[in-house]
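Its record is retained below.
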Amino acid sequence: MGGGPSMSLLCYYCLVFVAGVVAAAGAGTSVPPPLPVLPIPTAAQLAWQRREVIMFFHFGMNTFTDVERGTGAENPALFAPAALNATQWMDAAAAAGASLAILVAKHHDGFCLWPSAYTAHSVRASPWRAGNGDVVGEFTAAARARGVDAGLYLSPWDLHDRHYGQEVAYNEYYMAQLHELLTRYGRVWEIWFDGNKGTNATKMTYHFQEWFDTVRQLQGSINIFSDAGPDIRWVGDEKGFAGTTCWSAVNQSSITIGSAGIEKYLNEGDPRGTEWVPPECDVSIRPGWFWHRNETAKPLSQLLNIYYNSVGRNCVLLLNAPPNATGLIDGADMARLREFGAAVKRIFGTDLAEGSRARASSERGGGFEAGKVLDGREETYWAPTAEDGRRNGYWIELRRPAGARAFNVVRIQEHVALGQRVERHEVYVDGVAVARGTTVGHKRLHRLACPVAGRTVKIWFAARRGPPLVSAVGLHLDPYATDVM
């Protein structure tokens, strides 16, 4: 045939051409993600939410005077931790599963755990390290070495400084100390502004906005905590419990830092909120925030209950472990933190939804299939069509393999990077309702009354703010459930 290509080769070329045309036709036609429902988190807020458990260390003059709130008149000579070891504190944080640890650098008594140039009431005046010590420096260095991120608390209320009550003079003093803390010790991931002060405290106007802007100038990617944020809000109690309904959004104009009567609003958030300010649940492992010889750590059952009612309700748990007067975490407290961290890993380290097949009321298109809730990735998610919800509500169902193990915890997670949407949800196992709730957010955990070994798990969602975007559905067995229910 004159040296031309054979018929089989021509057929091959035709197939390649057709495949190329099909590929070209399909290129650039991926289904785009849905529009976000505002407000949405910043990258720093999103990373913070995914930490789930962080640590607090209350340590200072109160540790040595055996009180929760000092007077400001304490003698710095009392501060003498003979065995202070910040590396051991980081071991405690890691044991509890925390990736961020916050140190109380100055509490209400005004005593500074770093050698501030603006007051004599600091570690410089104490016998510890012969007056050359710096707890903040040791803390931040130990955190870096251990791979734990550092945060700092600087009390606005100061019972020692003579300028307190003088608006300009004290705000200048406070901002000078803030500048020291945010320029001397490397990156700080969270800064804590506490609005608390006694009912008979000297009247004082804090320049919060100036403080916040200064913090942003010095550390651009930091998260700022206060009652009203701007990045993280107080949950409204010190029990470690968020509301059964918990929105990440609030209207900051409705919150005045330090005011009473806003606790319920902080606890529940606001579905019509215009700012993304997720809640942080602060609670101590002991009855008090500071170490006291006659107190002991909460039992594991109570700590797990706190976990379910904080992390399991769209919050981050800030767990306080106070070092003792020698400068160490008590052995019994350390053991409890290890027990708690191990228990959380044991419960959630195995996902009994593995091997399931997922189907849903609808799917937005390629890349947003129901199976995305099972891939273990934060950035992928199931997205239904908007029309689906307008007709019937939305649902997703897991069909488990034969012989799958029983579970008693259901985990649901929204893709909150595009906003919080779910207003109500219900969980069914083999057609029987086993749990219901309102919001989901970053994570919602439901503990069931008893383990079930159902073949199908179906979750129904109501979401008027836009189709729900669900990044994960997990099933777990909590062997401690008889203790925590």
Q: What stands out?
A: The CA atoms of residues 84 and 327 lie 4 Å apart. The radius of gyration is 27 Å.
